[in-house]
């Protein structure tokens, strides 16, 4: 239900455009497919994904001898779901049961990184796990304070140093604290500077090295936080970050605030990084594990 509500902007926009298209084209022809292609691209599905999808639909329409434009609509959702359902098991977070789980959050400022960390902390707490936050974004003014406030809101402690201090030193402190308190989950914020890829790469590597020196297979997840409302920009951020470090999954925020929810498909198709979490609002409960079927249903149903 939440998924569906969160996607209402995308769905309303898509469904009304689709209805308009179908009412103008009674029969399926080349022009119909051209317009459908434009419609999907405008929903940020991503050009390559759309082209493949349209080819797929063309072939399927021929095979099934579909002539009526309105009969194409169910096929679209079917084909999109097929594409997304590659491997649904990839959507679950890699959580360790017998040792501490360390999750690193990366992403540029303003995408909703702090909020997502707060939501994830809240979710783990609800599951009965103990959680600690590490304020690794020592660069952005106010970031440390903002994370602490989220921590207080959900009832977990934040390990922090002063603004401008070395993020790797903060991580070291946080790991020591997490070990001595025997917490289940350590959630680590990082700075979101993207201007210089080499610096970004070095900083993330340094932080990761400090973590893995203390806990050999950590971090267990590197989650890239992307803002769904930024469309193709999110896609280019994903490219840059995945070149800078091993990103294990994506947390896509603000899906509720966009009519271009098709970005999930573009990310999945063009980067092959699983979308693991989606943000559907500003509250601590507005976080969902990504589910392909629910997603496609929310888009078109
Ligand atoms: P950060 O700079 O990346 O840490 O971003 P913040 O966590 O401060 O979030 C920036 C803004 O986006 C805040 O106003 C958040 O409340 C808002 N935000 C974050 N996630 C979501 C979401 O899933 N939906 C909506 N509607 N707003 C969100």
UniProtKB/TrEMBL annotation:
Major place of residence: membrane
Membrane topology designation: Peripheral membrane protein
Domain SRP54-type proteins GTP-binding: 274-287
Record keywords, A-Z: Cell membrane, Cytoplasm, GTP-binding, Hydrolase, Membrane, Nucleotide-binding, Receptor
GO biological process: SRP-dependent cotranslational protein targeting to membrane
Protein's UniProt keywords contain Iron: no
Name of protein: Signal recognition particle receptor FtsY
Name of the gene: ftsY
């Amino acid at each position: 239900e939440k998924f569906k509500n969160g996607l209402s902007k995308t769905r309303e926009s898509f469904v009304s455009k689709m209805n308009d298209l179908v009412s103008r084209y009674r029969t399926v022809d080349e022009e119909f497919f051209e317009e459908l292609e434009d419609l999907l691209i405008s929903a940020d599905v991503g050009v390559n994904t759309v082209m493949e999808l349209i080819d797929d639909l063309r072939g399927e329409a021929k095979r099934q001898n579909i002539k009526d434009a309105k009969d194409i609509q169910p096929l679209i959702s079917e084909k999109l779901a097929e594409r997304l359902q590659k491997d649904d098991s990839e959507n679950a977070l890699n959580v360790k049961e017998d040792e501490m789980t360390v999750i690193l959050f990366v992403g540029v400022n303003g995408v909703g990184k702090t909020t997502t960390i707060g939501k994830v902390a809240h979710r783990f707490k609800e599951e009965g796990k103990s959680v600690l936050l590490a304020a690794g974004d020592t660069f952005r003014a106010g970031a440390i304070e903002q994370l602490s406030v989220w921590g207080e809101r959900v009832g977990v402690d934040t390990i922090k140093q002063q603004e401008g201090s070395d993020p790797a030193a903060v991580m070291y402190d946080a790991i020591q604290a997490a070990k001595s308190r025997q917490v289940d989950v350590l959630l680590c914020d990082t700075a979101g500077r993207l201007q210089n890829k080499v610096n970004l790469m070095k900083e993330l590597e340094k932080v990761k090295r400090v973590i893995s020196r203390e806990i050999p297979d950590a971090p267990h997840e590197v989650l890239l936080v992307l803002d769904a409302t930024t469309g193709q920009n999110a896609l280019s951020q994903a490219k840059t970050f995945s070149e800078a470090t091993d990103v294990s999954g994506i947390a896509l925020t603000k899906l509720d605030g966009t009519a271009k929810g098709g970005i999930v498909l573009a990310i999945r198709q063009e980067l092959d990084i699983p979308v693991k979490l989606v943000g559907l609002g500003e509250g601590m409960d507005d976080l969902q594990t990504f589910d392909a079927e629910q997603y496609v249903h929310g888009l078109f149903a």
